[in-house]
Structure prediction request, 275 residues.
Amino acid sequence: MDGSVKGLSRPAVPVNKTDLLCSLRPLLNKTKKVLSPLICLMIWELIVRLEFINPFFCPAPTSIVRELYSLVCTGELWMHLYDSVTRALCGYSLAALAGVGVGLLVAWSRFMEDLIDPLIELVRPVSTFAVIPIFFIWFGIGDVSKVLIIAKACFFPIVLNTIAGIKGVDPKLIQAARSLGAEGVALWTRVLIPSALPMISTGMRVATSMSVTTLVGVEMLSADSGIGFMVIDAQRVFATEKMFAGILILSALGFFFDRVARLVQHRVLVWHKGV
Prediction:
């Protein structure tokens, strides 16, 4: 009987500390990313609670969260968020279509480059906010002008990265493709555009943050809805908790757009070692 028990018993498997650390490393990396924001929020909360700062001018994070919860429950947040996201997405989509199209056109033809490139370099340095009055006069103060202003801000990173991506394709790769019979449309669709996709996607990712920053400006200047309007309207009546809640939403919106752009970039460019 004792022998059978001894035969069924198994020796304890030693735990490999290296394997354990490797399995915990992804969790530790994610923890490190949220650690610094959490520490900043805790210090902020402590400073306000100890009354080193007047809560009227800088409310505590917990007060801001309560105000945010109230905005969610009343439905006010969803109305403003819907209008802001719609404007940002429309402007960004218009800029993406125009930017990639113009960039490919400039890279395709020397004549088109000589014709369009000076216009791009003349308009690009002009601040987006400097042309807002012109857009308001031409297109009114409705959503059309706001979408076009956002598109103007997002257009240049996309078009410049598209041009640079096409022009940066390795000439040896082009020669190799031509030696295999790739010409015209086949050369563009199979060699040039795929090779330029990393640069194009980078420009489109940069434009996501510009869409949010421009959105805030146009909504603060002339709008009756949107997160930017909610922030400036709260400032007019000294509702600082609501104002900070709106700023928090704008930060989260920009972060969300960037995460989506990065996810799309990873999915589309899964073959690219630099992504």
